[in-house]
TrEMBL record:
Gene from which the chain derives: proC
Catalytic activity line of the entry: L-proline + NADP(+) = (S)-1-pyrroline-5-carboxylate + NADPH + 2 H(+); L-proline + NAD(+) = (S)-1-pyrroline-5-carboxylate + NADH + 2 H(+)
InterPro entries xref list: 6-PGluconate_DH-like_C_sf, NAD(P)-bd_dom_sf, P5C_Rdtase_cat_N, P5CR-like_CS, P5CR_dimer, Pyrroline-COOH_reductase
Protein name per the record: Pyrroline-5-carboxylate reductase
UniProt cross-references to PANTHER family, sorted A to Z: PYRROLINE-5-CARBOXYLATE REDUCTASE (PTHR11645), PYRROLINE-5-CARBOXYLATE REDUCTASE 3 (PTHR11645:SF0)
Keyword list, A-Z: Amino-acid biosynthesis, Cytoplasm, NADP, Oxidoreductase, Proline biosynthesis
Species this protein is from: Sphingomonas natans
Length: 269
C-alpha cells in the first residue's frame, strides 16, 4: 500500500518515539528522501533521511509534521516551526498532556491537528496508538488511521480522556516492565538464579499475553484455568485479590500518571 500522505514529511524531534514512528513508516514503504528530521544533536537517523538542527528556511511546505519533542520543549521549537506550516499541513503531536487548543495557539496555520498517543512497542509494529483529531473530515480520519496502522492497534479517543489513555497505554509498558521485574525478583528471592528468573518471568508474560490475545475467553476465565481449586495459584491470587492489593496499587499508579499528564496540560495552556 502506498504511504497515505504525499509530499514532504518533517519530524520535530526524533528520539525514542519519533525514531520508532519513523522506522515503522520507512519499513511500510515511506521514501526516506521525503523525510526531514529536525533534532537538537543533528545526529544521523536513517539512510536517505535529511537531518537538520532547525527547520529548513525555504523549500516546499511540509504535508505532515510530527511533533516528537518533550512537552517542556514545545515553546522552544514552536516559534521557528509555526511559520513554515500552512493550512494543508497535517500537524501530528505525540506530546503527553499538551491539548489541541494549546497546539492551535502555537500553530495557527494547519487546518487539521491530530493528537496521537503511541507506546514504545510501536518499535516492533505492536504498539497502541490512541488518536484524537481536530479539523479532520471523514477522509482525513481514514488517512490518519492508515498512517498509524503500521505502528499497531489504532483507536480513537475523546480528547477529554487523552490523559487517561496516556497513563494506561502510553505509560503502560513501563508499568508492565516493573511487574515482570517484580515477578523475577520474587523468584530470585525464593532461590532461583536471577538471570534464569528474569528469562522465565519475561517468557511467562509474553506467552500469557499471546494466549490471552488469541483467546475468546475472559482474562478471569483464563486465570481460573491456571488456578485449581485449593491449589497454589489460588493461594497466590488470594493475595493479589485483596481489596488493598493489586487493583488499588494499579489504580494509584494510573491516577498518579493521569495527574502528571494534567499538570503538563496546564503548563502548556
Ligand atoms: N517515551 C514514551 O514512551 C512516550 C513518549 N511520548 C511523548 O513523545 C515525546 C518524545 O518523547 P521521547 O521520544 O521519549 O523523548 P526523547 O528524549 O527520546 O526525544 C526527544 C527528541 O527531541 C529532540 N529535541 C530536544 N530539544 C530539541 C530542540 N530544541 N530542537 C529540536 N529537537 C529537539 C531530541 O533531539 P536529539 O535526539 O538530537 O537530542 C530528541 O530527538 C514526548 O513529548 C512524550 O510525551 C508519547 C508516548 C510514549
Ligand atoms: O512519561 C511520559 O511523559 C510519556 C507519556 C507516555 C509515556 N511516556
Amino acid at each position: 500500500m502506498p504511504f497515505p500522505i504525499k509530499g514532504p514529511i518533517w519530524f520535530m524531534g526524533c528520539g525514542n518515539m519519533g525514531g520508532a514512528m519513523l522506522s515503522c513508516w520507512l519499513e511500510a514503504g515511506l521514501d526516506p528522501a521525503r523525510v526531514t528530521v529536525i533534532r537538537k544533536s543533528g545526529e544521523a537517523v536513517a539512510m536517505g533521511v535529511t537531518v537538520l538542527t532547525a527547520p529548513p528556511p525555504d523549500g516546499p511546505v511540509p504535508s505532515l509534521v510530527v511533533l516528537a519533542v518533550k512537552p517542556q520543549m514545545l515553546d522552544l521549537v514552536a516559534p521557528a516551526l509555526a511559520p513554515m506550516l500552512d493550512p494543508t499541513t497535517l500537524l501530528v503531536s505525540i506530546l503527553a498532556g499538551v491539548e489541541t487548543e494549546a497546539l492551535r495557539r502555537r500553530f495557527p496555520a494547519p487546518r487539521a491537528v491530530l493528537r496521537a498517543m503511541p507506546n514504545t512497542p510501536i518499535a516492533i509494529g505492536r504498539g497502541v496508538v490512541a488518536l484524537h483529531g481536530d479539523g479532520l473530515d471523514h477522509a482525513g480520519r481514514e488517512h490518519a488511521e492508515a498512517l498509524m496502522a503500521p505502528l499497531g492497534t489504532v483507536e480513537w479517543v475523546d480528547e477529554s480522556l487523552f490523559d487517561v489513555v496516556t497513563a494506561l497505554a502510553g505509560s503502560g509498558p513501563a508499568f508492565l516492565f516493573r511487574f515482570v521485574d517484580a515477578l523475577a525478583a520474587a523468584g530470585a528471592d525464593a532461590g532461583l538464579d536471577a538471570a534464569q528468573a528474569a528469562r522465565l518471568a519475561l517468557a511467562t508474560v509474553t506467552g500469557a499475553g499471546l494466549l490471552a490475545e488469541g483467546s475468546t475467553e475472559s482474562l478471569a476465565a483464563l486465570a481460573n484455568r491456571v488456578a485449581s481449586k485449593g491449589g497454589s495459584t489460588r493461594a497466590g491470587l488470594d493475595i493479589l485479590d485483596e481489596p488493598s492489593a493489586l487493583k488499588a496499587l494499579i489504580r494509584d499508579t494510573i491516577d498518579a500518571a493521569i495527574l502528571r499528564n494534567r499538570e503538563m496540560a496546564a503548563a502548556a495552556r
